[in-house]
Amino acid sequence: MANSKYEYVRNFEQPDVLLPNTWIVVRIDGRGFHKLTAKYSFEKPNDRRALDLMNAAAAGVMKELPDLVMGYGISDEFSFIFHKDCTLFERRASKLTTTIVSTFTSHYVFMWPTYFPSVLLTPPLPSFDGRAVLYPSVTNLRDYMSWRQVDCHINNLYNTTFWALVQQGGLDAKAAEKELTGTLSSHKNEILFSRFKINYNNEPEMFKKGSVLFRDFEISSSAETTAPNPTSAPVPSDSATSPDIAPPAPLSKTAAEKDRKRRLKARIAIEHIDIIRDEFWDQRPWILSGKA
Ligand code: DGT
Ligand code: MG
Ligand code: MG
Ligand code: MG
Ligand code: MG
Predict the structure, then answer these.
(1) Is residue 197 part of a domain?
(2) Strand, helix or coil at 216?
(3) Ligand 1: which residue has its CA nearest to atom 18?
């Protein structure tokens, strides 16, 4: 293309390349969902259709972006993890974030009629914001995921108790809020059980734990013996004894392409399980190793 005198304006574009060798988390969040959930009369505090729709949209994102190793969703938000070795879009923050946000939003709107067949979607349509955050170690990354899952638990216990007091206990919102001010988890569990015969432990796992998405390579709990790639590196550790700072040996072009195809073909698992303890990660070493 011929240079024009206008070409110089390109210099106004600022680079936003993310630091190499760091885990990238893109978190998206529904814009004004307080209003949107009221407009469409989502069930309170959890609407299964809405959460299934969020998960379906997130699975669509994971399918289209094989570089993603995991997703985690609660309420109107989803966190997507790119492996620290990811080089997609030269690691440009805005390109990664906006691609995820728009892909997710497209799927959300496209799949709406599947999950809300009798509810016509009208403007203002659902939209999402997004941000990219870097985590330099596996510990930091797992602490991030734990933070979101703890948030899910705290909010869900509060909301479940709040709405029981309102819907079944006949309290108005103000009274319910007052009743719950300063209460510990144990107290909320007690309110649920003694007044409403609700055992919080028996609430749906999706509501209590959120939704964890990952590529399912059908590795059982005996991960070591059935791993598809027995030469795969162990899960990176950032402990003092084994600093995880050496760059990985680059895959050959054909190996990288094979890897990508494998990832593209893999089923996206959607589970509602604990990601705070080691078990989840120990049983699925390919998620953080990046070797699948
Ligand atoms: P934002 O994110 O600053 O644009 O504003 P919001 O209104 O999206 O606020 P946020 O993201 O902090 O809170 C999420 C809202 O969505 C909150 O009002 C609860 C609502 N919400 C999420 N999931 C459900 C659901 O399953 N059922 C109902 N009824 N509401 C839900
Ligand atoms: Mg927000
Ligand atoms: Mg929101
Ligand atoms: Mg939110
Ligand atoms: Mg273009």
Answers:
(1) no
(2) strand
(3) 34
For residue 89, the model assigns a pLDDT of 98
161 belongs to a structural domain: no
Q: From 215, 207, 208, select the one nearest 270 (Cα to Cα).
A: 215
For residue 48, give the amino acid letter: R
Residues 206, 162, 178: CA angle, nearest 5 degrees: 150
How much distance in Å is there from the Cα of 285 to the middle of ligand 2?
32
118-139 pLDDT tens trace: 999 999 999 999 999 999 999 9
Residue 270 DSSP SS3: strand
Neighbours of 229 (CB within 10 A): 13
Domain of residue 246 covers 17-137+205-292
Phi, psi at 214, each rounded to 5°: -155, 165
Mean pLDDT lowest among 83-87, 212-216, 256-260, 263-267: 256-260
Our answer on whether the CB atom of 44 is closer than 6 Å to any ligand 1 atom is yes
Q: Work out the mean pLDDT of the chain and round it to a whole number.
A: 91
pLDDT tens column, 252-277: 888 888 888 899 999 999 999 999 99
User: What's the token pair of residue 247?
Assistant: 């760059």
Q: Give kind and range of the element (H or E) at residue 143.
A: helix 138-163
Please give the structure tokens belonging to residue 162: 């709040």
* Across 228-242, average pLDDT: 42
Give the mutation target among 47, 52, 76, 119 for probing the ligand 1 site: most ligand atoms within 8 A of CB: 76
| 127 occurs within a structural domain | yes
Q: Which atom of ligand 1 is nearest to the CA of 77?
A: 11
Contact 72, 79 (CB under 8 A): yes
Q: For residue 247, what are the CA distances in angstroms to 35, 66, 138?
A: 46, 21, 15
pLDDT score for 247: 57
Q: Ligand 1 test: best mutation among 27, 28, 37, most atoms within 8 Å of CB?
A: 37
As for how many domains the chain has, the answer is: 1
